[in-house]
Amino acid sequence: MYSLGLKNIGEKFRFREVVRRWFVFGFIISFGYGQEEDTLKIRTPQKAAYYALLCPGGGQLYNKKYLKAGILFGAEIYAGIKFNKYRVNYRYYKDDLSFSKHQYLEKRNKSAWWIGFIYIYGLIDAIVDAHLQSFDEIMSEDLEQSTAEDTKQKEEK
Question: How many domains does the chain have?
Answer without folding.
Answer: 2
